[in-house]
Amino acid sequence: MRFTSYSEDPATWAEDLVNTYNVVREREKMPDPAALAELLLAHGIRIKGVPTRKDLERARALRTALREVFGASDEATAVALLNGILAEHQAVPHYTDHDGEWHLHVTDPQAPPVDQYAVNAAMGLLGVITTTGMSRLHICDGNRCEEVFVDVSRNQSRRYCSPQICGNRASAAAHRARRRGATR
Asked: Cβ(18)–Cβ(70) under 8 Å?
């Protein structure tokens, strides 16, 4: 599903950051600045050296704020939360033609890496919400799973963060329940 040219990849940035902490198992998947560096680099954020502990704390605070967006009760609440992220991380929208075509950038290239990540992720989610509404932002329906995802399926039917893992677990559990019911 194509939302807007600006939100395709950055929307996944939000889910990738939120999913660095498993709220059900209280498992931290971004335990140190080196793990934050890996996440930033995976999404094309240029860094100079390893991020600091303060950068890690800011990324974890951003993670909490983005999780609130996925759990927001309505579009107005989600947009307000995202506007807050944009303000806090000093979004500076501007057009550039550094690669021969005009396109929008939303942060100063010299901004701290966490700010660049935050603004891009927030803009990605805003693109999804303003194009299709909140119906594309989900928290997994899987048993013992609270991971978030942006549903890019054509018919908005995705219910699990991973159809192969959580989806298969749910199918297997339903199958076992049917078999138990049939043997009674």
From this structure: yes
Block residue for tokens 């399926």: 153
Q: Which of 70-79, 122-131, 166-175 is predicted least confidently?
A: 166-175
Confidence (pTM): 0.85
Mean pLDDT of the chain: 88
CA 73/CA 6 separation, integer angstroms: 24
Token representation of residue 78: 């989600």
**DSSP string across 118-156:** HHHHHHHHHHHHHHH-GGGEEE--STT---EEE---TTS
What is the β-pairing status of strands 94-96 and 103-105? Answer: antiparallel
The pair of three-digit structure tokens given for residue 108, joined into one six-digit string: 């100063």
Determine the pLDDT at residue 171. 64
**C-alpha pair distances (Å), 95 with each of 33, 82, 87, 103, 160:** 31, 21, 19, 5, 37
pLDDT of residue 12: 92
